[in-house]
Amino acid sequence: MKLSFRWYGESDPVSLEYISQIPGMRSIVSAVYDVKPGEVWPEESLAKMKKQCEDHGLIFDVVESIPVSEDIKLGKENRDHLLDVYCENIRRCAKYGVKCVTYNFMPVFDWTRTQLDKKAPDGSTSLVMYWDQMKGLDPLKDDINLPGWDASYTRDEIKRLFVAYEELGEDGLWENLEYFLKKVIPVAEECGVVMAIHPDDPPYPIFGLPRIITCEKNLDRMLAIYDSPANSLCLCTGSLGCANFNNIPAMVRKYSAMGRIGFMHIRNVKIMEDGSFEERAHLSGCGSLDMYEIVRALVETGFDGYVRPDHGRMIWGETGKPGYGLYDRALGATYINGLFEACEKALKK
Ligand SMILES: [Mn+2]
């Protein structure tokens, strides 16, 4: 496996120097943040990112994400233009050494939490989603201001999007994903890039918006649309794992054996009795997921793709971007290294 770490560019309070000090760290996962979604990424930005990483002994070879415009997801008339831009961005990333591009196909917003700094008894804070804080909220009536929601939308725009997705429904979203894949994957194949779709977070409908990258049956369907190693998964254990119906070690084993996992996001999550969930420390004992079984599944199937610790808690007084502090993600990386070393040595015996 290739150990990686997400970095938000020069505005990230976590420096490349600090990231490079994490044992075994190899790759930087980043994106171009200085243009709007739907625009072509300047080559200078990619060249600069590559150089900055190299200066710290790191490799910039994973992009997270090239965002997919709502108009592509909705199948609007201008999608062909937006897809041309999308493909051009894949080509440009490849030119600067990128091997894996992550994206998602979630309508309107990327992820849903009700609080970003929920304090645990030990004083650490993390992201949580509690159903009792979601109940009664209606995006068509209320001014919803949940963390993770794109604040650039006006209330009217949000309402229009909700209506458009209601009309589109799950079937329509599948059709538009198919259209996207059939345009994009051949380009990725041509330039040696693996496209890795991130599952919906959480993996079930929120406020009636359709969600399709949610479970084994749907992942099978997504991979079958375009049968190529370039059409792969970013298997996020925490996103799929906040629903009890997903058996994460079994899914990891299956898709890794198929050679269809380009990127692993490894983190732990605790599912509560009512389906609410809390992001927890990476250690198996801290959440609902068995991290040892997840890593064993990867090792035993010969996984050689990218791995990164995903969201961490805020600990030791650190402040910064919720989920993306240095300390707890570095602890996660070290734990992941330990699991891999143990599983690899056990396999050789
Ligand atoms: Mn993730």
What features would you describe in this structure?
With 349 residues, the chain is of the alpha/beta class. The protein has a single domain, classed as Alpha-Beta Barrel (TIM Barrel), CATH 3.20.20. It has 11 helices and 12 strands. The chain has an 8-stranded parallel barrel, surrounded by 4 helices. The mean pLDDT is 94. Bound molecules: manganese (II) ion. Manganese (II) ion binds at residues 198, 236, 239, 265, 310.
CATH topology descriptor:
TIM Barrel
Total helical elements: 11
What structural class do helix, strand and pairing data support? alpha/beta
Can you tell me the residue ranges where pLDDT is under 50 for at least 5 consecutive residues?
none
Share of β-strand residues: 15-25%
Overall number of structural domains: 1
Tally of DSSP β-strands: 12
- CATH architecture label: Alpha-Beta Barrel
User: N-to-C terminal Cα separation, in Å?
Assistant: 19 Å
List of distinct ligands in this structure: manganese (II) ion
Question: How are the strands ordered across the major sheet?
Answer: 1-2-3-4-7-8-9-12
Q: What is the highest CATH level, the class? A: Alpha Beta
Q: Mind summarizing the main beta sheet?
A: 8 strands, parallel, barrel
Oligomer: single chain
What spatial form do the alpha-carbon principal axes imply?
Answer: globular
pLDDT averaged residue by residue: 94
Give helix % range.
25-40%
